[in-house]
């Protein structure tokens, strides 16, 4: 049993070599940033192709963050106040329009079609089923890699959540999503050059580490394997 274990470890160490990645792959990308992000409406917003809309989203989000953080409002109280004000305005508008023979408020038809409800339900059902399937795989120990990823993400969320509140985290994440891709697309050549330099330095460090430590371990395991 022990010899089989040493054989397995020695095989993994002896035949495991550094991956032959080419640093040029970092700078040579077949798809543009817009295509990587999906190439649709969301990509346009993230890359400021619709600058007015992106700026509006940032300003509205900033206003909401200031309202919640500085005024002491909660989400429930703010939504209730806005709906109350909207109902009062529409009600008084409709009553005054009937008395003064003016047109009623131009409200669209508030109606959910069966087709729309079915599409939303199918979309939610598909994503919920994917989530449940992944959760079952993790709980049954079928996917160790997925378990490690989920555990790492949850640990990261726990650490970040302990440093800030959910509202600030959400606003900061939105700012990052709406600025980092656009900055990368604009300064792509400079960023890629620095990334290639860092990648080459990491490769050199790995080669040194492999020669200094991993080779010694390989030799030691091979010696133990020969003795056994």
Automatic annotation (TrEMBL):
One Gene Ontology term, aspect cellular component: endoplasmic reticulum membrane
Pfam families from the UniProt entry: Reticulon (PF02453)
Membrane topology: Multi-pass membrane protein
InterPro entries attached to this UniProt entry: Reticulon (IPR003388), Reticulon-like (IPR045064)
Cellular compartments annotated: Endoplasmic reticulum membrane
Protein name: Reticulon-like protein
Any one biological process term the GO annotation gives: response to bacterium
Organism: Theobroma cacao
Domain Reticulon, chain residue ranges per copy: 42-228
PANTHER family named in the record: RETICULON (PTHR10994), RETICULON-LIKE PROTEIN B12 (PTHR10994:SF65)
Major subcellular site: endoplasmic reticulum
Transmembrane segments: 51-68, 74-94, 146-163, 169-184
Keyword Transmembrane helix: yes
Annotated keywords: Endoplasmic reticulum, Membrane, Transmembrane, Transmembrane helix
